[in-house]
Request: fold
Amino acid sequence: MLRAIADVLRQIGATLAAVVTLPFRAVARLFGGVAGAGRGGRTRRI
Reply:
């Protein structure tokens, strides 16, 4: 019984963490894309 409650709480925590971090990951992807587009073809990657 206690294990089932712990599993439910763990699942709720994981879902909550995903929802909270989602906007930050979206902003990081946005700025990462802008920075990558700014470097464009000027840099040569080896």
Notes: The chain has a mean pLDDT of 85. The chain is about 85% helix and 0% strand. Helices lie at 2-39. The two ends are 56 Å apart (CA to CA).
